[in-house]
Design a protein that fits this description.
- By secondary structure, the protein is an alpha/beta fold.
- The protein has 14 helices and 17 strands.
- Helix 8 packs across helix 9 and helix 10 packs parallel to helix 11.
- The protein is elongated.
Length: 409
């Protein structure tokens, strides 16, 4: 079944109506300053459409992982303030989620104005395992819209969560799929159902365990699987190489050996680094050198060496695979890109993607942050996902509760 879309809602008319929007404002903070506003920017188009159409918009979002009660460090205000700076519409911020401040501000909204509720996870019912608690919270959220309200889910980064503001709310208000969610689904469907070949998947980040199901599901779909980041060292160890003090998930070695064996059987290439940047310690001031991936302990630091990036030869090899591809999915940095000495591998992958004419998808999270941190123009990439964990779960073939809840509504 297909979902009703934002266009359907706009066609019905929203002027003077309260519209509850689940946005993704879960941004990294540096103190009280937004360190990466990518998700705020991605939320703007739908909010702008609704504002321009005269809707009275109430935004729900979470930030961080509060424990079900207000915590100042997780206040939504920095993200809401950044939204206000970028927007052409008026933005108010409630001091609570469904309390007196939220109710008063919601009832006083004028056509085209936006209200951002405080972090929805400040209410423990948002994430409760008790269905009745989530349902009760959803009813209170819906009550903010008065009569003839509507709900729009535009937070793809939250659709893998069975939370009140994502799932239960769809049983209380007429529900519509936001443009951002629709685009994400279309893009990820293309990656899983009919990718144009050659299809290259680039996986990085710290842990193999975070990507196990993705690897399992994409092994039979991708032509080349490039492995970098901290997870590469578990692959190298599984292949019989010593990795010093590099990140290693010993409990995943047998699983990785199974993937390597299966890849050979089905004709999918798993490509691991041939060289790595090995450091004396983790830090910007660490001594470091480039060593062969099968000789990490042969350098100056011996068995205490710490691999923090793929090496330049590996970066060029990975870039070559990307340049030859017609479809590329990238999730996870190749090294500790926040430190310049260990950013080369991630930069090489990002540059190859930016130069490529392939259908390219940057899979959210740290990968999207790396693109912006390293100074690339987002327009040079086919699609930068806001999904992170949701994108991975979609590619794993899992059912995403938020998408299921929208179907047929």
């Amino acid at each position: 079944m297909t979902s009703h879309t934002l266009d359907d809602l706009l066609a019905d008319g929203v002027r003077g109506r309260h519209v509850l929007v689940r946005s993704d404002l879960n941004v990294p903070l540096d103190g009280s300053t937004v360190a990466d506003d990518g998700r705020v920017r991605a939320s703007l188009p739908v909010l702008s459409k609704l504002s321009d159409a005269g809707a009275r918009v109430i935004v729900m979002a979470h930030l961080g992982r509060p424990k079900g009660s207000p915590e100042p460090k997780y206040s939504i205000r920095p993200a809401a303030d950044r939204l206000a700076e970028l927007a052409h519409f008026d933005v108010a911020v409630a001091q609570d989620v469904v309390g007196q401040s939220a109710r008063q501000l919601a009832s006083g909204l004028a056509d085209g104005q936006i209200l951002v509720l405080e972090n929805v996870r400040f209410d423990a019912r948002e994430t409760s395992k008790d269905d009745s608690e989530r349902v009760a919270f959803a009813a209170e959220l819906a009550a903010l819209t008065g009569e003839n309200g509507a709900y729009v889910d535009d937070a793809f980064g939250a659709v893998h969560r069975r939370h009140a503001s994502v799932v239960d709310i769809t049983d209380v208000l007429p529900a519509y799929q936001g443009d951002l969610v629709r685009t994400e689904v279309e893009v990820l469907h293309q990656l899983t159902e009919a990718p144009k070949r050659p299809y290259v998947v680039v996986l990085g980040g710290s842990k193999v365990s975070d990507k196990l199901a993705v690897i399992d599901n994409l092994l039979g779909r991708a032509d080349h699987l490039l492995i970098g980041g901290g997870m590469a060292f578990t692959f190298l160890k599984a292949m019989g190489h010593e990795v010093g003090k590099s990140l290693l998930e010993a409990d995943q070695l047998e699983t990785v050996r199974g993937y390597l064996s299966r890849a050979k059987e089905i004709g999918c290439d798993i490509i691991v680094p041939t060289d790595v940047v090995v450091a004396s310690k983790f830090g910007a001031d660490a001594e470091h050198e480039v060593l062969p991936a099968d000789g990490i302990e042969s350098g100056r630091f011996g068995d205490t060496g710490l691999g923090l990036d793929i090496g330049p030869a590996s970066g060029e090899a990975f870039a070559s695979y990307i340049r030859s591809a017609n479809t590329v999915f990238w999730n996870g940095p190749m090294g500790v890109f926040e430190i310049e000495a260990f950013a080369g591998g991630t930069r090489a992958v990002a540059q190859a993607l930016a130069d490529s004419e392939a259908f390219s998808v940057v899979g959210g999270g740290d990968s999207a942050a790396a693109v912006r941190t390293l100074g690339f123009d987002e327009d040079d990439f086919g699609h930068i996902s806001t999904g992170g964990g949701a994108s991975l779960e979609y590619l794993e073939g899992k059912e995403l509760p938020g998408l299921t809840a929208l179907e047929g509504k």
